[in-house]
Amino acid sequence: MQKIHLVSGGCGFVGRNMVKRLLNTTQDRIFMIDDLSIGRHPSDWLENYTSRSYLDLEIIGNENRLFFWKGDFRNLLFYMRENKRYVQEKYAIEFDRFSDVFHFAAIVGGRLKIEGDPMIVALDLSIDAEFFYWITQHKPERVLYPSSSAAYPISLQSTDFAIALSEGDIDFTKNLGTPDMTYGWSKLTGEFLAQIAAKYYGIRVACIRPFSGYGEDQELAYPVPAIAARAAGREDPFEVWGSGKQGRDFVHIDDVLDFIFILLDKVSDGSAYNIGSGQLTSFLELIELFADIAGYKPAIKPLLDKPVGVHSRYANMDLVNQFFGWKPKISLREGMERVYKKQLDRLNSGK
Fold first, then answer.
1. Angle 163-165-166 from CA coordinates, rounded to 5°
2. pLDDT of 27-80, one tens digit each?
3. DSSP H or E run through 259
4. How would CATH label the architecture of 223-248+279-315+331-349?
5. How many of the other CB atoms lie within 10 Å of CB of 21?
6. CATH of 4-214+250-275, one of 3.40.50.720, 3.40.50.620, 3.40.640.10, 3.30.230.10
7. Could you report the per-residue pLDDT of 215-269, keeping only the tens digit for each?
8. Sequence spans of domains, the chain
């Protein structure tokens, strides 16, 4: 029987890149869910888009491989909890259980969202609780839970004490410290639930802690495409939130996806691993890089009243290199050149 994978949050940045990867590298079917509160409809990002409707399900393409259910993932989880074969019976899709489950459904956003509306971000706790309960009942073949570098203690990311963050800096048998706002708390809780699901219910699950993922099709609410767009427009003076000395670890979405599949093959106990470059880049350095790509040298204008988050957040990749031999393939400059070209094309086309 043909495999079918589930991708929650399938129309968000990471989700849609995963859906496209699965479509392009497998012959499997994909069932994706998104309420489009943040994500974009598949007609915006799939080539040669065609679809037809079956009840409240959208069947995309002519191969019956991609199914799109629009709505709050928690509602679908409720239906599937009430009837374990809800999807199979309602939509006449034949399968025993989902193969790989990629859980990207979450209320996410940039620093403005995390600090500006922390209680709505806390709803991720309810999404994840429903999700983990469901997988213990459904028992899919493999599960990917995306945590976040925001789960790390903020005390390790200050101007006075900034280190490369290692997986062991989160130890559930010791004092965990304080993660970054409600988003960090929700992801830390999700990691703990992943370990519970693996230990007590035999679910094969792996967790990732991505650092600052970026890519060509990321929304402008995120810093990398926003800075690239402003460089394409040759902004001068160039505004930066805070002093610009705060730094992040930028990793391209293609590298993130590559490592996800390595982890799914090798990790089953709910353990979490970093996905980053291991390189700290300040926002001043990022602006300088984009300005160099654009071929000009703007003055910098700090905006000290804007939210900036922690001062320093970057990954220690030693454990990943040791256990999996993985390193990102896309350099910082190559990745940012891709993003810049996308934003320049967008600017020139007037879209």
1. 130
2. 999 999 999 998 999 999 999 999 999 999 999 999 999 999 999 999 999 999
3. helix 253-266
4. Alpha-Beta Complex (3.90)
5. 16
6. 3.40.50.720
7. 999 999 899 999 999 999 999 999 998 999 999 999 999 999 999 999 999 999 9
8. 4-214+250-275, 223-248+279-315+331-349
